[in-house]
């Protein structure tokens, strides 16, 4: 029995007739203590998949099993780090974390909750900024608050939805190291969704490609056997790293071409010739001369990838 | 470096504009509008009201600040009623599409109705109640009903504009309904609510004059109307300036508070 499991999950949006099937037949099994990275194109339904894992969306078909239970409701045991941080702007760093701590650990004494909150603010090195509001922080700091808020809930599984997507390369690298460090220290189960294969391989035990949507589905999982902790400078020259990277990108590219097809349709090009300015202008009132339309019909062939 | 008169233009130009209006007023009173008292006469006749602002010589013969206080107190009560009723209505409108569909058309129809139309209805509404001040209730009814709409509509817009992410945070944390409301929804809506509160206060102050005129209650508006009926025109202008000044100060105060609550 896996810790977190998706069975034949499908999801689509929109009314019948003009529906978009986002995810189709997703099967996923994640063991306790595992770090799984899902790599996919942007717009392939990564965030939808994450919302289903977190319970924010209910799949249209298929089952979500978590810790042996059917779990449609979201809860603090599946800690989601949102793509856009989602900090409450009227609360300080400390208060944002404390909101989660006070809610999840309502059985502890106020003093215990305070020290717990402080511990997680310190874990992401934000103690000097504890009384600042999100608007006074940089993007990387905000994301760290968001991570601290989620970790402070001590979730059974940490769900990272493109957590570093909006950050610059340097901040990104620092936060990647921080995630790796925290994960090793806390033996946390993690699901990371990202569009960066390098990030996935650097952090995860297992990389799963997500094919391009619509009807995106998961490919075969590729184990990353490189030992932890991994050094980002050494890893790029590593033979295994290159091998895995090649495998992941090849799979994503192949999946894309497999879906490629062509579509031919007739286009009516409207008459867009400039007005004849030597012509006498029509009267301001009364009947106007009808413009002569010379629409042109052309056929167009486009390549689409489904 | 700008020349010195340009650095003082924030002071000089408004004075110049004021002087121009005074001149226009003076010329008008001496040419085509014979009944209009000129600025000097207005000042002379208004002196007892301005220089003894707290004097009380009779029910409708009091110092100008005393009148202002009476008016402000009535406005405060009506405005408080408007906020207490309007904010929850706005929340319901924003939260429930059904509620919104049911009541939005009627709100859109009631919103542009003038205070002059509401006041008689208020009089009728409370006429049969025993042991109450009917005119005061009618005035409060009018102020509350006219000034409520900006609060209602802005709150509704604010509630609809709460980012889904904030609500998702509440769901992941499993906040109770009450905690979601107090910890997430109300703080997220506050900036919109305060814009509504500011607009509402402006309207409440506009309505006071109409309400006092029709009910004859002592206050700036009641005083204005009484002096007009007594053919004493000098104090009308004093009242207008007072109403304008107080309205300006109220608006400034509210925008200071509003800025305090701009979170994001």
Can you tell me about this structure?
The complex is a heterodimer of chains A (306) and B (264). Chain A is an alpha/beta fold and 306 residues long. Chain A folds into three domains: 178 residues, Rossmann fold; 56 residues, no CATH class; 44 residues, no CATH class. In chain A, 32% of the residues lie in helices and 25% in strands. Chain A contains eight helices and twelve strands. In chain A, strands 6-7-8-3-9-10 form a six-stranded mixed sheet, with helices on both faces. In chain A, helix 2 crosses helix 3 and helix 3 crosses helix 4. The mean pLDDT of chain A is 80. Chain B is an all-alpha fold and 264 residues long. Chain B has one domain: Orthogonal Bundle (MetI-like fold), CATH 1.10.3720. Chain B has eleven helices and two strands, in the order αααββαααααααα. Chain B has a two-stranded antiparallel sheet with strand order 1-2. In chain B, strand 1 and strand 2 form a beta hairpin. The radius of gyration of chain B is 23 Å and the shape is globular. Classes of the chains: A alpha/beta (306), B mainly alpha (264). At the A-B interface, strand 6 and helix 2 of A face helix 8 and helix 9 of B.
Structural topology:
The complex is a heterodimer of chains A (306) and B (264).
Chain A: E1 4-13, E2 20-30, E3 35-40, H1 46-54, E4 61-66, E5 69-70, E6 78-81, H2 93-104, H3 110-123, H4 139-152, E7 157-161, H5 169-186, E8 189-194, H6 197-203, E9 206-210, E10 222-223, H7 232-235, H8 239-258, E11 260-269, E12 296-305
Helix pairs in contact in A: 2-3, 2-4, 3-4, 6-8
Chain B: H1 4-7, H2 9-30, H3 39-51, E1 56-58, E2 61-62, H4 64-95, H5 97-110, H6 115-126, H7 134-160, H8 164-172, H9 177-215, H10 220-229, H11 234-260
Antiparallel strand pairs in B: 1-2
């Amino acid at each position: 029995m896996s810790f977190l499991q998706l069975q034949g999950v499908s999801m689509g949006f929109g009314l019948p007739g003009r529906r978009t099937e986002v995810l189709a037949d997703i099967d996923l099994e994640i063991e306790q203590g595992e770090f799984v990275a899902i790599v996919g194109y942007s717009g392939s339904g990564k965030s939808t998949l994450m919302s289903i894992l977190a319970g924010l969306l209910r799949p249209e078909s298929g089952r979500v099993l978590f810790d042996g239970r059917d779990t449609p409701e979201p809860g603090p045991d599946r800690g989601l780090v949102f793509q856009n941080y989602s900090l409450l702007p009227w609360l300080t760093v400390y208060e944002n974390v404390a909101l989660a701590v006070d809610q999840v650990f309502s059985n502890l004494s106020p003093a215990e909750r305070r020290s717990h909150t402080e511990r997680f603010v310190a874990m992401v090195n934000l103690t000097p900024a504890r009384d600042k509001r999100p608007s006074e922080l940089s993007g990387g700091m905000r994301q760290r608050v968001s991570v601290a808020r989620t970790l402070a809930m001590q979730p059974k599984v940490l769900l990272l939805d493109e957590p570093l997507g909006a950050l610059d390369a340097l901040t990104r690298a620092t936060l990647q190291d921080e995630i790796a460090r925290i994960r090793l220290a806390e033996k946390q189960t993690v699901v990371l969704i990202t569009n960066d294969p390098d990030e996935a391989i650097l952090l995860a035990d297992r990389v799963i490609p997500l094919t391009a949507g619509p009807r995106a589905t998961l490919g075969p999982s590729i184990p990353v056997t490189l030992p932890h902790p991994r050094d980002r400078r050494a890893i790029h020259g590593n033979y295994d790293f290159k091998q895995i990277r090649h495998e992941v990108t090849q799979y994503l590219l192949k999946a894309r071409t497999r879906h490629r097809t062509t579509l031919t349709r007739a286009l009516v090009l409207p008459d867009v010739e400039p007005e004849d300015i030597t012509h006498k202008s029509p009267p301001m009132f009364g009947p106007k001369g009808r413009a002569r339309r010379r629409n042109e019909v052309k056929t167009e062939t486009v390549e689409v990838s489904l | 470096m700008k020349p010195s008169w340009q650095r003082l233009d924030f002071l000089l130009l408004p004075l110049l504009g004021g002087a121009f209006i005074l001149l226009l007023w003076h010329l008008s009173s001496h040419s085509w509008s014979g009944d209009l008292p000129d600025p000097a006469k207005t000042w002379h006749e208004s002196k007892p009201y301005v220089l003894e602002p707290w004097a009380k010589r009779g029910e409708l013969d009091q110092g100008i600040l005393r009148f202002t206080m009476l008016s402000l107190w009535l406005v405060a009560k009506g405005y408080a009623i408007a906020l207490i009723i309007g904010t929850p209505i706005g929340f319901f409108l924003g939260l429930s599409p059904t509620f919104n569909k049911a009541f939005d058309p009627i709100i859109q129809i009631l919103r542009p109705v003038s205070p002059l139309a509401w006041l008689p209805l208020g009089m009728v509404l409370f006429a049969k109640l025993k042991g109450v001040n009917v005119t005061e209730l009618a005035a409060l009814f009018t102020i509350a009903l006219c000034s409520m709409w900006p609060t209602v509509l802005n709150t509704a817009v604010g509630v609809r504009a709460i980012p889904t992410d904030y609500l998702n945070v509440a769901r992941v944390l499993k906040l109770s309904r009450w905690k979601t409301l107090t910890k997430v929804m109300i703080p997220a809506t506050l900036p919109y609510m305060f814009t509504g509160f500011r607009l509402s206060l402006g309207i409440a102050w506009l309505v006071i004059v109409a309400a006092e005129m029709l009910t004859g209650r002592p206050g700036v508006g009641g005083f204005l109307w009484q002096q007009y009926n007594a053919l004493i025109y000098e104090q009308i202008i004093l009242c207008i300036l007072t109403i304008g000044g107080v309205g300006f100060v109220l608006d400034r105060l509210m925008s200071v508070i509003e800025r305090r609550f701009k979170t994001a």
